[in-house]
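Q: What does the predicted 3D structure of Cation transporter look like?
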Amino acid sequence: MTSYIISRPIAVIMSFTALIIFSVIAYLKLPVSLLPDIDVPELAVRVDYPNTSPEAIEANVLAPIRQSLATMQDIRKIESVASNEAGMVKISFEYGARMDLAYVEANEKIDRLMDQFPREMERPQVLRVNSTDIPVVRVHVTPTNNRDLLEASKLTENVLRKRLEQIEGLSLVDINGLVFEEIQIEPNSERMRIYAITEDDILQSIQNANQELGGIQVKDGQYQYFLRMASRLVDTESIESIPIIKDGDYIELKEIASVRFASKKESGSHLLNGNSSIVLNLHKKSSTDMTLLLPKVKETLSVFEKDYPNISFTTTQDQSIFLKAGINNLLSSLFFGGFFAFAVLFIFMGNPKLPLIMGISLPCSLTISFLFFYFFGLSINIISLSGLALGLGMLIDNAIIVLENIHRKREEGKELIVACTEGVSEVKGALVSSVLTTLAVFVPLIFLNGISGVLFYDQALSVAIILTVSLGVAFILLPLLYKLFFSNFQVKGQTDSLFFKILVNKFNKIHKAVFSKPLIAFFVMLIILPFGYFAAMQLPVQGMPSINRTDLIVKINWQEPISLQENIRRTQQIIGNPKDGLLESDADIGIADYLLQISNASIQETVAYLNFNSTQSRNKNILSIKKEIDSKYPKANVNIEEAPNAFELLFSTSNPYINIKWRLPSSAKENLNDSLQQSFPVTGFEAGKSLVKETNIVINILNNKLLQYNIPQELLYNKLQYILTNYPVTNLKSFSKVTPIVLMESHDRTLSQLIANNIITTSSGVNYPLSTFVKIDYAQRPKHILADASGIYYNMIYNPSNKEENLEQNPTFQLSKIRNWIVENGLLAEIEGEYFSNQKNLQDLLFILLISIALLYFILAAQFESFWQPLIVIFSLPFGIAGAILFLWIGGATLNIMSAIGMVVMLGIMVNDAILKIDTINRNLSSGIQSNVQLTEAIHLAGIVRLKPILMTSITTILALCPVLIAGGLGAELQTPLVLSVMGGLIVGTGTALFLIPLVYYIVKRKFVQ
């Protein structure tokens, strides 16, 4: 087949040219994203219910929602948390569930429950969790004068949002920090007493004045008109002139109350650099090229800056930096891989034409891969790019092996076409097997449970694509290019460089020494395994590699019933203080208004993002911030975390490491939890959210007094609502604008003053002090109420600072203590958490690795037609892993996702070298060599033949990775663990392929195989 192909060069070149053209077109149509469009199997139902306690939200809203949604299919877990004024139900499904159908079904169930919910509550919102829900950038709108925030809110809502949503590729602009307008009516209690007017009189008068008769038609002769009431309210003047008639007296509203436009009372706010601001989270469509979207956003913002000079526009938390790092890593891998392949080929073979062929084949393989990306529906993202980067190393290996083998055949005096044909056919089987063995390691990983398996799908598919394409290029294009470049090549025997001749001389000496004492040499090589095991025990384990970050997140819960204004003041005090190197800060204070908000918050909480000019400044300020908060507000709970990027948002979990859940019998008193918490047998645990309490004000209604003075309870409840809340009266409508009108009491007085200074007026006009009928007490009540499918529960949690540490170094022993405590107290309890999930994931991973090894064995057994030779290849892999771990330990790195990927790459290259070595030995033996002496010669000859490709592939890969170790920036920091594991594994693996594999082959063949 190879001879047929190279005999038609024009047809092959034209075919490849057409493929490249189509591939470029496909590349331009590929979506570019930070992450694959992952349909995370989770839904959340968010409930907003102002002025309502956690107990009321749990009983009246969350419990019915849980009971209804629990009947949905494929549900794995359902949990809810009720807080003051808000609630959240989170539903986790099995992976593979149709989330589009689940979303529709959940909304239908919520609709059917609406009749059971309180009328004044807004409809609960069903949210889907998706990887594209991560905002690509945050835009802050800050007026130069804080007093203009209301106008900035109107501009943002009516203009800026709509203009941003018109940018092609944006799917949603999610806003927080808007300030809304309302009309506030503040009665004068003294003048109301004089005129004997109550709040009900004011309320009724305003509502009567704002009625509109709709749908009424009247005739006027031959004409017909629609009737419209002329008494509708249109502005504050029309409200002030509303007449209130009491006992025949005519009084205008402005005589007993002030009417004004004001900012609506908010439950949340946003700050940028200590100033009130509005933030817009920009979310892109899954098919949008992020690298093209961000310039469009910045171009639009530059237009905004010209149009609105009194407003500043600032961007933060640009997530495209990770994608740019991935693309730059791929480009640098291609550049340095090609450059060093050129240099190594020239040094080893002394002919500049061979590196030139390599320089043509590498971009061709990469470009054609994008055509298959298009056919398989892959996007260009961090995961698929990492797969391409992995495949590039193996792609270079395939090209080097084929070129070297063809050139060696030519040096042996074979005709050009014969050399090309035999050079390809001789290594074809080994290269196909090496690709299959690499895929045997990657492909089973997609069967991992959870999001890891979903992510590995993109990576495994991209590796499979580029390796398959590289084989096609190596078997078709490379021999053709060799024929075209070397058509006039004159055979002068071997053209090895002086450098390679020196290496051959050193190899012969070491080979002779190893095979003179084979058993001693074998046990000497085994020494590396215990060193690798020791290093593995010293290495810390983490998810993603540590990055020298300049930003951080500060989460504060003040643990006090403070107002939003006090929270803002405290946050400005902490963030606003001058800090060395602080570039920017923004904070979401209280309850955020994001549409995609899937976590509960309270008015007493703050989430602040701080970005410094250097890692040193960041680390210096971490302790000072916490110390400042602890000294000024000792009750506050402060958590300082890494600023989340897309990976951490996707992989992070809110589940405790270990969670002890129990339920109280219906007859038990709630204070039983206090004694259970005190008697908990294991240190290190802390109270979960269900056991956190806060001080509540309890207004006790004195019913005996109500009966004594013949006052209806409804009258008292209405009075309390009027004076304690901004009571909604009606709406002022002007075209599409709707402005609420609220009745409010002066909020600059304390609760005691409000109760003491107000009266209740009966229907007969008799006034009584409000304090006669109510009594104020203070009580400790749960701040949150947690529940699952079985009902309300209480919990203790354990979250070590390093989740890889065992619970008190002996989790099994500690958990047995906890189980005994559960039995002793007669509790209905369960133990769960990330610790158990990790154990299950580890078992799944070990099982999948066993499947990978089995697949590896079957492929190699088919290639070698032997049951024992594949075991030699598998036996060599732990040596490469030990070398990788030793380099990680020496380099101060950790075991993480990137270092694990590096090990997979390294093992793929090691398997290639091992397969070629054993295949060459088998070819030598099949020539009639059968005796032990001839076996040694066959092994030595195979070592000489494969010395050049093994060294070239290893040295090329190692040199191509070296620049990452000396480079700086995010891309280099992410890639350093991968580089160290590949370099360490290849250094040891090269020695393994050159000496250990032939030595084990020799021992097994001589001692055990006849």
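A (community wiki): The structure tokens above were generated from the sequence. The longest strand covers residues 75-83. The CA atoms of residues 51 and 834 lie 35 Å apart.
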